[in-house]
Design goal:
The protein has about 290 residues and is an alpha/beta fold. It folds into 2 domains: about 120 residues, Glutathione S-transferase Yfyf (Class Pi), Chain A, domain 2 (Up-down Bundle); about 150 residues, Rossmann fold (3-Layer(aba) Sandwich). The protein is built from 13 helices and 8 strands. Strand 7, helix 12 and strand 8 form a beta-alpha-beta unit. Helix 2 packs across helix 13 and helix 4 crosses helix 5. The two termini are about 30 Å apart.
């Protein structure tokens, strides 16, 4: 059983706790070990365009902590994943920058040497566990269930650094959905931004982006949107709930986190997966299970 340093980030424990509990439960069932690091801090992303040194030092500390224990990082958040990958790339490529960061990390008895790999939750399932092993872990399969996969921006771009998937025609998430028996539908807006960076700054524009995405997924006749990022989940779940109260036209299109989607197939209880914590009701998804 391989063990990873689990990087939860800031947003998940504060606003999308069900993502963490569902992911932990799924990883345990798949014999993937995780180690918690109480000293992990912010990935640095909020400072990236304000103070690059602060951003890189924050990221470098996380990387050095995992490296000190000989572990690769498993990130749940696409934003954290991308932020750590970019910082790791910069530090690997720039010897002077790396030396400067290490001088500051020395105060914490840490040193960054670029020996830790950063992976996203979906990457671990796809590459390390593998589709065949996932299929064997499933006890129930969906039937006639249509899912719109939302890849998220920070995993796909910049593609040469993140290495997550083809940024123009990704398939990784779709294949993981197909493992559950569900159909991954094609929808025109699937690679567009969900609007999360604008929430709280330009709410109208953020909701306009969301409206276009929801209309695209509805046109594709999706039953649910599936995500694997807390920011995207907040947009499709919480912000969509607000849009509904403001009479956004169109029926609700609930969002389900991928560990919830596959966790139900594995046989995990809905309470363990935090199904009840989603704002928009997704409990009816079990009605799509294939009759035995």
């Amino acid at each position: 059983m391989k063990t990873y340093a689990l990087f939860i980030g800031c947003n998940i424990p504060a606003r999308v706790k069900q993502y963490e509990t569902a992911a932990r439960a799924v990883l345990k069932e798949l014999s993937i070990g995780v180690k918690d690091f109480p000293l992990f801090n912010c990935c640095g992303y909020p400072m990236r365009n304000i103070d690059e040194t602060a951003y890189l030092l924050s990221a470098a500390k996380n990387l050095a902590l995992a490296e000190n224990h000989g572990l690769d990082i498993l990130a749940l958040c696409k934003c954290c994943f991308g932020s750590l990958k970019i910082a790791d790339h910069k530090l690997r490529e720039d010897e002077k920058l790396r030396a400067d960061m290490n001088r500051q990390l020395a105060a914490h008895d840490l040193k960054y040497e670029g020996k830790t790999e950063i992976k996203h939750f979906l990457s671990v399932l796809y590459h390390d566990v593998g589709l065949n092993a996932l299929k064997h872990s499933i006890g129930k399969s969906y039937q006639d269930l249509k899912i719109a996969t939302h890849y998220g921006c920070h995993a796909l771009r910049p593609s040469k650094i993140t290495g997550f998937d083809n940024p123009v025609a990704p398939v990784l998430f779709d294949e993981l959905v197909k493992v559950t028996g569900a159909e991954s539908v094609h929808w025109d807006q699937r690679l567009e931004c969900c609007g999360a960076p604008l929430t709280g700054i330009q709410d109208k524009l953020s909701m306009d982006l969301m409206h276009k995405k929801l209309e695209s997924a509805r046109t594709a006749e999706a039953d649910y949107i599936c995500v694997a990022c807390p920011w995207c989940q907040i947009q499709f779940d919480t912000v969509q709930s607000i849009m509904i109260t403001q009479h956004d036209n169109g029926p609700p299109l609930p969002s389900i986190l991928y560990p919830q989607l596959i966790g139900l197939c594995i046989g995990l209880e809905s309470e363990v997966l935090g199904i009840q914590n989603n704002r928009l009701d997704i409990s009816q998804i079990t009605s799509f299970f294939k009759e035995e």
